[in-house]
Design the sequence.
């Protein structure tokens, strides 16, 4: 009885592991800089799925990098905002299954009041 119960439990765990291994998602990542190339930490990054309007959020790390993992495939709009800088919008990001999209680094986000 114990062996049968242990075997059932092991099969259940294997099934769960296989199911999680087959999740079909993608990700968006990037590096946020100012016009001089200096990293922008603490920027708020939001990817909006255009079909569902579901938002995935992150904040850039101390080196300006961010990652938005586990996104369902589809079309997205990316928004980057930081106090003292103009908001950056990047429309038209189309993600496929298991795709890792590196968002455009340039144009860099510009300080408020900078000439365009």
Sequence:
């Amino acid at each position: 009885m114990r062996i049968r119960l242990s075997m059932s439990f092991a099969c259940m765990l294997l099934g769960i592991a296989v199911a999680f291994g087959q999740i079909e998602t993608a990700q968006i990542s990037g590096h946020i800089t100012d016009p001089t190339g200096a990293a922008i930490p603490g920027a708020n990054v939001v990817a909006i799925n255009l079909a569902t309007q579901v938002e995935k959020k992150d904040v850039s790390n101390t080196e300006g990098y961010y990652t938005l993992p586990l996104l369902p495939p589809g079309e997205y709009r990316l928004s980057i905002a930081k106090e003292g800088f103009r908001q950056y919008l990047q429309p038209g990001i189309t993600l496929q299954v298991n795709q890792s999209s590196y968002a455009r680094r340039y144009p860099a986000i510009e300080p408020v009041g900078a000439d365009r």
